[in-house]
Amino acid sequence: QVQLVESGGGLVQPGGSLRLSCVASGFTFSNYPMSWYRQAPGKEREVVAFINNFSGTTTYANSVKGRFTLSKDNAKNTLYLQMNSLKPEDTAMYYCNVVLRTIYWGQGTQVTVSS
To answer: Kind of pairing, strands 92-99 and 34-39?
Structure first.
């Protein structure tokens, strides 16, 4: 059974940092590309970052480029999202995602950036 469990969200002041984690199980973690998405209230879910499992290449949304870093620890079956220089517009529920025969999502972790 595929499971994705996110953690690490919270309340942070503008300019602060958070590191999100996504622990995966139920599939061969190293074999699949994975993504982080986010959804703010009243807005559609949008992709934040993507990692190619073969090349290790990461791709970022323009809105987070230079501030967020995605990484993957295959030994721990864990996907990370390091978020620096956070802005109020980064406030959202953050989800990790993997596409196998279907799309799997975690339950999400809330990030709130506010003074």
So the answer is: antiparallel
